[in-house]
Specification:
Number of helices: 15
Shape: globular
Distance between the termini: 39 Å
Number of strands: 3
Radius of gyration: 22 Å
Low-confidence stretches: 387-391
Order of helices and strands: HHHHHEEEHHHHHHHHHH
Helix content: over 70%
Structural class: mainly alpha
């Protein structure tokens, strides 16, 4: 165990946040799956606890393995993963497993494992964008190169994700825009990109809505219900999410004492944050927000300390997308945003989605490990008189 700890490098705070979020996930999933267990497993909620424990344990191993890889190798993987993700998204769009009139999952035939191709596409896109931004630092004034090498990949990925999962496509677009802004892409280019994405998404929704194809009717209804002042227009899940938050109060009802888990359609995924507030109160909800903000803060420090642009953009892009998704999920739970299908990273019950999140975290820790080793090497040179005199 001591040898394993010695081999574990990278930002210790991020490691701690990952462990704490995993513990929160176990507690929340075990509590929120009781009604699901009653319907499907004859009341044995321990089945879902054991399954989630296995998923998270595998996720921690994935984080460890990914953080051991030199992050510069991810620059080589980025283009390959990006190219692979495009046909996978197309396949998912036409042949994927359907849920709520949207094809999001691919089912692997032999192992019978399903995963969302959008999870792979998000990871591949941010790796690819970090690679492109680091290579084009001196060409960001060239409109043609910026559009072909940076903007077009974002538009393609978002266009392929949007028909089945508009909220994820918008999240990817906004996260990419933030990365471009920090990467010193000119504001006029960003405004043109924003206009292009708006027109693309608007056209998609309009065509889907009037042709009654896809999920446009669901999207429009969600926005209408969110903006309506009529109590009768409040969606069922939002209504019970509000009750859960109100019942939680300051300190909560205690672990395992949620009542609204029996009424919410997906209390273990989309609306797990409301269950956490009901059981652990406002303080528990704030503590969870603090963990995500701490994760982002430590990632920003990695961004500032990394001497190479690729590693800096890689750490920031991946961390911001994860935290942004977390805040979108929590915003939906507290009714600050319309209902989406986004889960709470590393907390909601899942399988492949958690593993893709762990790959992203392991990649961030790989950059952190390099920054840490670089700092230690400089310190050794400064404190070793023989090395200093030789140089």
């Amino acid at each position: 165990m001591e040898q394993l700890l010695n081999k574990t490098k990278g930002d210790k705070v991020i490691w701690s946040v990952v462990i704490l979020l995993s513990l929160v996930s176990l507690l929340a999933v075990y509590s929120s799956t009781s009604s699901l267990a009653y319907r499907l497993q004859k009341g044995h909620a321990e089945i879902y606890l054991i399954k989630q424990l296995g998923v998270l344990a595998a996720g921690i191993i994935i984080v460890y393995l990914c953080h051991k890889i030199n992050y510069m190798y991810y620059s080589k993987f980025a283009l390959i993963l990006f190219i692979i993700s495009i046909p996978l998204l197309i396949y998912t769009l036409f042949f994927g497993a359907e849920f709520n009139h949207g094809s999001r999952w691919i089912k692997l035939p032999i192992v019978q494992l399903t995963f969302q191709s959008s999870d792979l596409a998000k990871l591949a896109l941010f790796m690819f964008l970090a690679r492109q931004l680091s290579r084009m630092r001196n060409d960001l004034d060239n409109t043609k190169k910026v559009w072909i090498n940076i903007f077009l990949p974002v538009i393609v990925i978002c266009a392929l994700i949007a028909p089945a999962n508009l909220s994820t496509a918008l999240m990817v677009a906004m996260s990419s825009a933030m990365l471009f802004f920090i990467g010193n892409v000119r504001m006029k280019h960003l405004l043109i990109l924003a206009g292009s994405v708006f027109i693309l998404m608007g056209s998609l929704v309009a065509i889907s809505y009037y042709l009654k194809v896809g999920r446009a009717v669901t999207w429009v209804n969600r926005v209408q219900h969110f903006s309506s002042e009529e109590k009768s227009e409040v969606p069922y899940q939002v209504y019970h999410s509000k009750i859960a938050i109100a019942k939680g109060g300051i300190l909560g009802k205690g672990p395992g004492n949620s009542n609204q888990r029996n009424f919410l359609p997906h209390p273990y995924s989309d609306f797990i944050y409301s269950i956490i507030i009901e059981e652990y109160g406002l303080l528990g909800g704030i503590a969870l927000i603090f963990l995500y903000l701490l994760f982002l803060y430590r990632s920003v420090l990695i961004f500032r300390r990394c001497p190479y642009a690729f590693g800096a953009f890689l750490a920031l892009g991946l961390s911001f997308s994860l935290v942004f998704q977390a805040f979108l999920n929590m915003g939906v739970n507290v009714n600050l945003l319309p209902v989406t299908g986004l889960t709470l990273p590393l907390v909601s019950m899942g399988g492949s989605s958690i593993w893709f999140t762990c790959i992203a975290i392991g990649t961030i820790l790989s950059v952190s490990r390099f920054v840490e080793e670089e700092k230690n090497n400089i310190h050794k040179i400064d404190t070793n008189p023989e090395i200093s005199e030789t140089e």
